[in-house]
Design a protein that fits this description.
Layout lengths: L1 H13 L7 H17 L23 E3 L9 E2 L2 H12 L9 E7 L2 E8 L2 E7 L5 E3 L2 H4 L15 E9 L2 H13 L8 H9 L4 H6 L3 E11 L6 H11 L7 E4 L2 H14 L7 E8 L2 H7 L9 E5 L4 E13 L4 E13 L2 E7 L3 H7 L6 E5 L7 E5 L24 E2 L7 E3 L8 H9 L11 H9 L6 H4 L4 H4 L7 H13 L5 H7 L7 H11 L2 H5 L3 H6 L5 H12 L1 H12 L20 E5 L7 H10 L3 E2 L9 E4 L6 H8 L2 E3 L1 H10 L3
The structure holds 2-(butylsulfanyl)adenosine.
């Protein structure tokens, strides 16, 4: 059954030619799972059911590469290919050679070791000499065989892990929905995904891979790159879809031209073609420099650009208050879509490129989602075009903007600015700030959309009757929230200050400020000298606090909060030890209603430490559903176990 399932995995993920439907495949998997559940002694680590396994780790182990992972020399013009050939030809005088040219995939490189035909190790490139052990994560990539079709004694292969466009778009959409930062391009997303500490999370990212190089092999013969690829294919690896064996540079160039447009149809990003001397004996004779093999080179396609006119430069205020200039453009076709807008990143970038309204500009869509303006076509600048001036007031709320030393971003820091409202509301109500139960991200968003919430003050005006008519809000839930809000009228000063979201002011700085000033009014009169004299307050924080308390929006907000009955109180012991200080934990199994990352973050926020494996010094083993081997180990060592509820109670009990 395992072999049968493996065959279907190959057909689906490697060949793109499934013979059965997804439902039929799932049924086969379920059947195998049931069989293995019945006969646990028959489970093997490389069973298709065992791709996602292993406990989350604190960090990846280091792997010293047996054969270093070299980079490739780049070139950008056909003339440079000629020069390359001329150079290496001198080193192998009189030899006949041919080329193999193949797609260059823009992901992150991975090296995978198989012993006796079974996956033994997967590692990232790192600095080329030492990488990270990402075996547990790589196993979740369905296209990567856990078992080879032939049990070669040893095989080390190199390939590229990437995130398909479709997956990337869906992931970013979901992250945006959840208020998380989006990935700039599939490459970053793939890299972030392969390096998640929990394999379960990596599995959900649906990464794919192509293999293109054999670093070491025992038990198989191959005389060329062409044969290497054929061997990889035979062993069950997904291989480069766009490749060709070519006799000379002329045909290599023709292939590069042809492949340019065919890249569009692929599910991955590709920025060029790798040209390799095909014959292995010649590759060996040519060898490598410190960084590159002499027998290969990467031809990079010029990024696709188009010319457009800047119709207007608008300044958008993001959710964190950063002002981003955006250019409205005359519509141009680029990489299969029409572009009418491009980000100008930040003011510094805009000023450096000196982009003006009316300018003709080159627009590019690299691997990035958002097109960018790369340069101005100066010859076409209309007469009288004025340099763009960044506004010194927020276009959303009119408050003066701030630029912190060392940052390129220009920001609005007005806590009542409508552009910042959602983020500010969420932060104010969050656990480490005012901890208003029932006002998590989802509710904040819902109430914001329903216009029951605008800024922080509006939280205190929520009425049960208005809430109870919203979808998903029973009378009880509405009542609970109103009560929680009532309780949040006398927050501890440190939480209140932290909740205001003053840039650079974390929980610790908030406690320091609270302990010294003891009221918001006193903080409003703070001077730079005073602030700098406080422990752990440097120029960066002091500057930010001053800019904040002097912002007219802040004064207005504090006044209105007071009117609404909010009275922060200073608590002497607010900086006492945290509830889980000095305790270490291991988590095993699936916790109810909370991801591992989140659970870990909570334990750490409460002063505890989460480690990778059970040892004698452990305070508690946190046990979820289907616990792993850690449970046995803990029992043997006599370590205390607890469920997540118990841990949550511990965190609350001793909390301030
Ligand atoms: S061959 C000795 N082939 O590009 C073997 N590399 O910019 C050298 N890459 O580090 C690598 N597609 O991660 C090779 N078809 C391909 C490739 C490829 C992508 C990556 C690889 C390399 C990087 C260099």
């Amino acid at each position: 059954m395992r072999d049968e399932i493996r065959r279907h995995e190959r057909l689906y993920y490697v060949r793109n030619a499934p013979e059965i439907t997804d439902a039929e495949f799932d049924a086969l998997m379920r059947e195998l799972k049931a069989l293995e559940d019945e006969h646990p002694d028959l489970v093997v680590p490389d069973s298709p059911t065992q791709r996602v396994g292993g406990e989350p780790v604190d960090e990846f182990g280091k792997v010293v590469h047996a054969v270093p992972l070299l980079s490739l020399e780049n070139c950008y013009a056909f003339g440079e290919l000629d020069e390359w050939e001329e150079r290496f030809r001198k080193l192998i005088p009189g030899e006949a050679f041919s080329y193999e040219a193949e797609l260059k995939i823009d992901g992150l490189s991975i090296t995978v070791l198989y012993e006796k035909g079974r996956l033994a190790l997967a590692a990232t490139r790192g600095d080329g000499a030492t990488g990270e052990d990402v075996t547990a994560n790589a196993r979740t990539i369905r296209a990567l065989p856990l078992v080879l079709t032939e049990p070669l004694p040893l095989l080390e292969v190199r390939g590229e892990v990437y995130m398909p466009w479709e997956v990337f778009k869906a992931l970013n959409a979901a992250r945006e929905e959840a208020g998380e930062a989006v990935f700039a391009n599939p490459r970053n997303a793939a890299s972030g995904s392969l390096r998640l500490l929990d394999p379960q999370l990596t599995a959900a990212r649906k990464l794919r891979t192509y293999f293109y190089h054999i670093a070491r092999v025992e038990g198989a013969e191959s005389r060329s790159q062409t044969e290497d690829i054929a061997l990889l294919e035979r062993l069950g690896f997904p291989v480069n879809p766009l490749r060709r064996h070519l006799s000379d540079l002329g045909s290599v160039k023709a292939f590069i031209q042809e492949a340019k447009d065919r890249r569009e149809g692929l599910d991955c990003e590709s920025d060029g073609i790798v040209v390799k001397v095909d014959e292995k004996p010649l590759q060996e004779r040519l060898g490598a420099t410190a960084k590159f093999p002499r027998w290969a080179i990467a031809y990079k396609y010029p990024p696709e650009g188009a010319e457009a006119r800047v119709l207007a430069i608008r300044v958008q205020v993001g959710r964190t208050g950063v002002l981003t200039p955006v250019a409205d453009l005359t519509p141009v076709a680029l990489k299969g879509s029409t572009v009418q807008r491009a980000t100008l990143h930040n003011y510094e970038d805009l000023a450096r490129k000196d982009i003006r309204v009316g300018d003709a500009v080159m627009v590019e869509k690299g691997g990035d989602v958002i097109p960018k303006v790369t340069r101005v076509v100066l010859e076409k600048r209309p007469e009288g075009a004025e340099p763009f001036r960044m506004p010194d007031h927020c276009p959303e709320c009119g408050a003066p903007v701030t630029r912190f030393p060392g940052e390129v971003a220009v920001r609005c820091i007005n806590p009542s600015c409508p552009a910042l409202a959602l983020e500010a509301l969420y932060h104010y109500a969050s656990r480490h700030a005012l901890d208003i139960e029932g006002l998590g991200w989802k509710s904040v968003e819902q109430l914001f959309k329903a216009e029951l919430l605008q800024d922080i003050v509006s939280i205190y005006r929520l009425r049960a009757a208005d809430l109870a008519v919203l979808p998903g809000w029973a009378a009880k839930k509405a009542e609970n929230l109103v009560q929680a809000v009532e309780a949040a009228k006398r927050p501890s000063l440190n939480r209140f200050l932290f909740g205001l979201g003053i840039r650079f002011v974390g929980e610790k700085a908030a406690r320091t400020l609270a302990a010294h000033y003891r009221s918001p009014e006193a903080l409003q009169k703070a001077t730079e000298e005073e602030l700098l004299a406080l422990p752990d307050i440097g120029e960066r924080i002091a500057g930010s606090v001053l800019a904040f308390v002097r912002n007219p929006g802040t004064l207005d907000l504090l006044r209105r909060l007071k009117q609404a009955g909010v009275e922060p109180v200073f608590q002497e012991d607010a900086s006492g030890p945290k509830p889980l200080s000095g305790l270490s934990f291991v988590i095993t199994g699936t916790l109810p209603g909370i991801s591992r990352d989140e659970a870990k973050a909570r334990i750490e926020a409460a002063g505890g430490k989460v480690v990778g494996s059970v040892s004698g010094k452990l305070a508690y083993l946190v046990v979820g559903e289907e616990p792993g081997s850690q449970l046995e180990k803990a029992k043997k060592l006599g370590i205390k176990t607890a469920d997540w509820d118990t841990i949550m109670t511990m965190m609350r009990e001793t909390a301030e």
